[in-house]
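Here is one chain, start to finish.
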Amino acid sequence: MRHRLNTVTAPDGRALGVAQWGAADGVPVFFLHGTPGSRLARPDEAALAAAGLRVVTYDRPGYGASDRRPGRRVVDCAQDVAAIADALGIDRFAVSGWSGGGPHALAVAARLADRVTAVECQASLAPYDAEGLDWWADMGPETTREFGWALEGEQVLHDNLLRQAEHDLVRLARERAGVPAADRDAPAVSDDERAFVAAMHGAYTAGVWGRVDDALSCLQGWGYSFDEIAVPVTVRYGARDARISARHSAWLGTRIPNAKVVVNPDGGHDIDPGTQIEDLRTLVAAG
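Its structure:
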């Protein structure tokens, strides 16, 4: 089963881009993408089907095929997830969120307690006002730069992320073309590279507003309390995360009631695809 794009209408009329992966009759799991990211998670379909999983992904507002929701808060994603689950005929489901999706996964668990069976957040941020946490300590340079722009305001963040997006996509185009790694950051951009960047889908289909709003929402109050979460929670992270400080996940593990904390001492920020499927199997079993 692979539906690359379904469109679901949110209660306020916005379009939400949705994809499904794995077994049509599998155990439902919502996977909430990172920042930036999109519904096009490209998982191993055969492995998901063999594991009996039905994975649902969607573009957060401003990404891919989803309309922007200016001023959105982290908690607002719960309404969108509920609308998608209703449209797909899913009553109860597990939720997994990676990186920028972590705070959103916890929001869904908090606000849809009667529908969520279990939740995990991987390599997640902690709230900006987290008591007792040095939020900036050990944060990766790109992440530090991005949130620094966010503190300067929406327009500053947007303009800088627009330039950053082109740089990232050009590097991807050069990688795709087999350009040696040492030359991928060269400043010149060819017409062919620009054409590839213009044709890219996924996170930047609708520009960089999704990434802008992700950053801004993570720096304000998330809109829910961890005390609202009454389902099994697993906090996973790599001790050598070079993008988001491992301190953040460690902090979450001590503040979320009854959370199970799983640390990979040699792990970084990204998720190994094979390990991810095993993690999802563990997640649904917890519920």
